[in-house]
Amino acid sequence: MKLNFTKAAIESLPPPAKGWAYHYDTKTRGLAIGISHTGARSFVVYRKVLGKPERITLGRYPDLTIEQARGKAASINSAIAHGENPADKRRQDRKEMTFGQLFAEYLQRHAKRNKRTWDEDEAIFNRHLGKLASQVVRDHPGASCLGAFPYRRRTPEDRQQGASAGFQHLWQSRRVGTVG
Q1: C-alpha distances in angstroms, 50 versus 30, 31, 87, 93, 167?
Q2: What is the structure's pLDDT at 128?
Q3: Please, where are the H alpha helices in 96-155?
Q4: How much is the pLDDT for 148?
């Protein structure tokens, strides 16, 4: 369904019974608002790039305003017009995660939720592994222990155990001098 995005129009859209429903903006090509069955709303750009459909999430509504979403969508449309695939760039950026980003994800997704001593973990990382923060994970010889970090695990419990075990292994190898 196409409609002119206004605050009132977006907020009046009902959530679907299950899954996601997408409504497209009449002013910006490819810009859509996705509404989940829980009522969460996110802006996306849905376009075919080099013959393949791509959906690029821009951000949540109302954190991202309609004008900001239109601006981001315009820059994505411009990149597509120049032969680039913004979705591939985002995929590559996620693959090129640094130790600092990885540790921040670990803190947010596991430690702060499940450990009372998460602040100690953060202090230890900053004190002993902080110089690794800007290194790309895949380039580091001690990173093999993190190969199955959260994204490949099946359940939330497996992801939490994988993250915790990975950082414990990295920490132990650092203490005995085999990393960095």
Answers
A1: 15, 18, 12, 20, 39
A2: 82
A3: 99-106, 112-114, 118-124
A4: 43
pLDDT at res. 180: 44
Confidence of residue 92 (pLDDT cuts 50, 70, 90): confident
Task: Tell me which DSSP letter residue 110 carries.
Answer: I
CATH of domain 2-90: 3.30.160.390
Beta carbons within 10 angstroms of residue 142's beta carbon: 18
Phi/psi for 140 (5° steps) reads -90, 135
Using the predicted structure, report yes or no on whether residue 144 has a pLDDT greater than 50: yes
AA identity, residue 76: I
* pLDDT average, residue stretch 102-118: 85
Question: Residue 23's beta-bridge partner residues?
Answer: 33
Token duo for residue 1: 């369904």
Q: Structure tokens of 4?
A: 């002119």
Q: Round to whole Å and give the CA distance between 132 and 140.
A: 9
CB neighbourhood size of 42 (10 A): 19
Residue 49 near residue 85, CB atoms below 8 Å:
yes
Strand, helix or coil for residue 158: helix
Angstrom distance (rounded) from CA 77 to CA 75: 5
The residues spanned by each domain of the chain are 2-90, 96-175
pTM for the complete prediction? 0.56
